[in-house]
Amino acid sequence: MDQLLGNRIRLWTAVLALAGMSGLLLAGRAQAATAVYPDGGSGFTSSSEGWTPGGASCDPVALLCTPEAAYDGTAGNPPGSISARTTVTVNVASLFSGTETWNSPPFTVPVGSVTGASLRLERAFDAGGLVDVAPKATYAVTLHDLSAGTAAVVLNEEVGKGDSTFAPRAGAASVVGGHAYQLSIEATTAQSTASLSLLSGTTNLRFDNVGLRVEAAAGTASGSGGDDNGGSGKFSSLNDSQLLSLLRATAAAPATLKGNRLFVKVSCPAKIGRACRIGAQGLLSRRKAATTKRTVKVPKGRSKQIVLRVKPKAKGKLAKRSRVLVREAVHAGSAHATLYRSRALIRR
Q1: What is the pLDDT, as a whole number, of residue 93?
Q2: For the chain, where are the alpha helices, taking DSSP H only?
Q3: What one-character DSSP code corresponds to residue 94?
Q4: What confidence score (pLDDT) does residue 69 get?
Q5: Cis peptide before 78, with omega less than 30 degrees from 0?
């Protein structure tokens, strides 16, 4: 009897120990937070999302080989990507090599206990009309620590004609809470087989869904990884990345053009937890304004329709378009975010 009782006690002790370990594991998971930078990750669905072309070069000469870092709205997973593009117009037995660079918007990892980081992206290579010379491309993704003035390659790879579909890749990274960072992608496409005849064509090395995933203790880092307030749906301490992520999650209503007035609806998502100050302006392109700018205060969870006056020189161009680009500069507390969204344009 004593032996049976002892066995039962030992069994229950083991069960309680396992339950305690499970609780600790669950607590650890609950305390973990994941953020993706820049701006919740770059899907490039409607634009290059703040990524900008860097240096570009071609060898042997620019007249024969033209490099370009270009946005591609048709290819991606889903459609939309940035591309390192090399165009060869003529080539006689010479090996060409084109290099292009993309730079991300700078971003800051919030102060806190960072437990891990990794870079993730999807890439695809299109050899275009140059398949016969077996072009190959290499790329390297570098993480620049702008605060410390250092840089480290976190992912590199060589691709060829067999890599024509978007495939995921990942590389480990190291970040410090409170530091500012920037990603850069440098791609080089080169001919690997000599050709004795004239040739022409364009290669594309495309990148999609690029993001630096940062894992940290709850409340110290959050971007597209969710809220940091125990799942309540509101952010207790909103940062720039969180604000941009919430704004992107809201649908963009169509804009209405009436004569020389553009009617645009702007919204302040309820999850922000406070009122927003929103400045809006219609654009012909990112660098060319189509309307005046107006700033309004919008209560949390509400929307407002604002009226923007169309500039005389832009009226004719805007009237021919089916969509209009709208820039929104949003402030909520100490957080600030700017986003560009293409909206359907209704004319009345």
Answers
A1: 53
A2: 2-31, 240-248, 312-319
A3: P
A4: 92
A5: yes
Report residue 168 as tokens: 């995921």
- Bridge partners (DSSP) of residue 169 are 121
Site of tokens 């969204």: 341
Q: Are the CB atoms for 117 and 99 separated by under 8 Å?
A: no
| pLDDT for the residue numbered 25 | 42
pLDDT at 172: 94
* Protein fold of 240-347: Immunoglobulin-like (2.60.40)
Low-confidence residues in the chain, pLDDT < 50: 5, 9, 15-31, 196, 219-236
Contacts 24+ apart (CB under 8 A), 66-71: 66/98, 67/98, 67/99, 67/100, 68/100, 69/100, 69/101, 69/102, 71/44, 71/47
The pLDDT, as a whole number, for residue 293 is: 93
- CATH architecture of the domain with range 36-217: Sandwich (2.60)
Torsions phi, psi of 10, nearest 5?
-65, -40
Cα gap 133→197, rounded to integer Å: 11
Report the candidate in 70, 146, 61, 73 with the shortest Cα–Cα distance to residue 98: 61
In the chain, % helix, strand, coil (3-state, to 5) comes to 15, 55, 30
Give the pTM.
0.56
* Beta-strand relationship, 255-258 and 136-145: unpaired
| Cα 316 from Cα 256, distance rounded (Å) | 15
Residue-range domain boundaries for the chain: 36-217, 240-347
Question: What tokens appear for 191 in the block?
Answer: 């001919």
| Residues 15-38 as b or e (16 or more Cβ within 10 Å = b) | eeeeeeeeeeeeeeeeeebbbbbb
